[in-house]
Write a structure and sequence with these properties.
binds zinc ion; alpha/beta; 10 helices; Aminopeptidase; eight-stranded mixed beta sheet
Length: 392
């Protein structure tokens, strides 16, 4: 049986798993019910299972019939603090918590892949390491799993992960080589002035005027310093200061995010942002406490693994349904694994405009076309077979 036929044969099960996870979403590092279901499924299928890695992470390891490489497949498990408004029969039963990014689909695909690979264990060589990760959405789940040894014993030779994607129609796969998702850095800046009466600015040092000039000055980093053929983003997300219309406050706090692909661009954008904010601060006579903290590196796909994935996807879906278009300034902590293991992160189309399934990720009306489950699982199994020297 080919990979797509095999995946379609368990499509109903994957839909049921996905809807169950969707009804019972759990936030970062609290994916206990989810992890329990995953661990029980892996054990039942014959995987050696480890739980409690980075709180709720689950790892299942299985050896094939012959020696060979170690392949790591990663699936994320966390939901978001979003109140669902889809009206779906399988809508979240947890107030204020929702699988609004599609990680419920990743869980279902992961459990499907586990079942399919276990079912043809005699046909492949090497080792499969399935990693179900907590806290992908900005809380550092991948980093913690690495710190707790998820890349050891056995050490993976190749890495794969996917994301269901609402910018692409269901029935398609998108895979690119090189950078596909951006590095993210967090900016927090405290602008310290001297408070006073709004009518007597000559007796105060105004942090609001300084902060406003900083925000404007930093707009020149991307427009004037970054190569127009390269790309980066600096966005301020919050600006807080002051309580009353006639009082100059003592402090203003700015926060923001910096996104980039290339390490040298990242370093330059951080340096220029710092120079501008501190320089404007000196000119205005305010104190500037600026912290720029690395969040995640860029997701960079390995050429050889991405090419294997493209070929596998084309053999499952046909060449016209495999594209190389998605590159986003969004961030993804699979990058932490990809820094250490050559691999590929790809996108599984999940939108269906005819059925009105187009709401963006993280929105209260987010949903996906569940046809993407069988396609995601089939491509994962096909590429796993190719990397694990499947004989059938
Ligand atoms: Zn997300
Ligand atoms: Zn996501």
């Amino acid at each position: 049986m080919n990979s797509l036929a095999a995946a379609l044969a368990i499509q109903d099960k994957m839909v049921a798993w996905r809807r169950d996870f969707h009804r019972h979403p759990e936030p970062a590092f609290q994916e206990r019910r989810t992890a329990g279901i995953v661990a029980a499924h892996l054990e039942k299928r014959g995987y050696r299972v480890k739980t409690g890695i980075a709180e709720t992470g689950v790892v299942g390891v299985m050896e094939g019939a012959r020696p060979g490489p170690v392949l790591m497949l990663r699936f994320d498990m966390d939901a978001l603090p979003v109140q669902e408004r889809t009206g779906a029969a399988y809508a979240s039963e947890v107030p204020g918590c929702m699988h609004a990014c599609g990680h419920d689909a990743h869980l279902a695909i992961g459990m499907g892949v586990a079942e399919l690979l276990a079912g043809c264990r005699q046909d492949w060589g090497g080792t499969v390491k399935l990693v179900f990760q907590p806290a992908e959405e900005g809380a550092g789940g991948a980093e913690r799993m690495v710190a707790e040894g998820v890349l050891d014993d056995p050490r993976p030779d190749a890495f794969l992960a996917c994301h269901v994607w609402l910018d692409r129609p269901v029935g398609t796969i998108d895979v690119r080589t090189g950078p596909v998702m951006a590095a993210a850095d967090k900016l927090v800046c405290l602008v310290r002035g001297q408070g006073g009466h709004g009518a007597l600015p000559q007796h105060a040092v105004d942090p609001i005027v300084a902060a406003a000039q900083m925000v404007v000055a930093v707009q020149t980093v991307v427009s004037r310093n970054v190569d127009p053929l390269d790309t980066a983003v600096v966005s301020f997300g919050s600006i807080r200061g002051g309580e009353a219309c006639n009082v100059i406050p003592s402090e203003v706090e700015l926060t923001g995010t910096i996104r980039s692909f290339l390490p040298e661009t990242r370093e330059m954008v951080i340096r220029r942002t710092r120079e501008l904010m501190e320089g404007v601060g000196r000119a205005c006579g305010v104190g500037v406490d600026l912290e720029i903290t690395p969040m995640t590196p860029a997701v960079i796909n390995d050429l050889a693994v991405a090419e294997r994935l493209r070929k596998a996807a084309e053999s499952v879906l046909g060449t016209d349904r495999v594209t190389a278009e998605v590159r986003t300034m969004g961030a993804e902590d699979a990058a932490v694994f990809l820094q250490q293991v050559p691999g590929c992160y790809f996108f599984v189309g999940a939108a269906n405009s005819e059925r009105g399934i187009t709401a963006p990720h993280h929105s209260p009306t987010f949903d996906l076309d569940e046809e993407c489950l069988a396609i995601g699982a089939a491509v994962m199994v096909e590429v796993a077979g190719s990397l694990l020297a499947r004989s059938c």
